[in-house]
Amino acid sequence: LTRSERKAYFDAAPTFKQSYAPQSGEIFGILRQMKETFESNLSASQKEEMANEKAYEDLKAAKEDEIAAGQAQIEAKTSELADTDEKNAQSKVDVEDTKASLSADEQFLMMLKE
């Protein structure tokens, strides 16, 4: 083939006509629908996350209040135990003093009887 024949061959109109119907409209429709679905799912997930975060904060505050109340109760019971131990020790001393006094009184009574 000569150069002019090649040029004529490539410049010539095609002998067949292919009909092409683009499918991009349908694809874009599917993509838009997917985007809307994703956006609605994202919105629902964000709302759920915010609700869960609030519930967590409320629970955390309640538990911190319980811990503070427990600490106060521990301190009160510890103070009460210290007071009780001190009263118990004083009572033991009083018992010893009373026994000694009773023994002295009994000896004095015996001396009086003799």
Please sum up the structure shown.
It contains two helices and no strands.
Set down the secondary structure blueprint.
Elements lengths: L2 H9 L12 H90 L1
3D architecture notes:
The chain is 87% helix and 0% strand. The chain contains 2 helices and no strands. The protein is rod-shaped. It starts with a helix and ends with a helix.
Labels describing this entry:
2 helices; single chain; mainly alpha; about 85% helix; about 0% strand; about 110 residues
Strand content: under 5%
Averaged pLDDT: 89
Largest sheet: none
Order of helices and strands: HH
Portion of residues within helices:
over 70%
Tally of strands: 0
Which ranges are low-confidence, i.e. pLDDT below 50, for 5 or more consecutive residues?
A: none
The class by helix and strand makeup works out as mainly alpha
Tell me the distance between the termini. Answer: 163 Å
- Figure out the total of helices: 2
Radius of gyration: 50 Å
Shape: rod-shaped
Oligomeric state: single chain
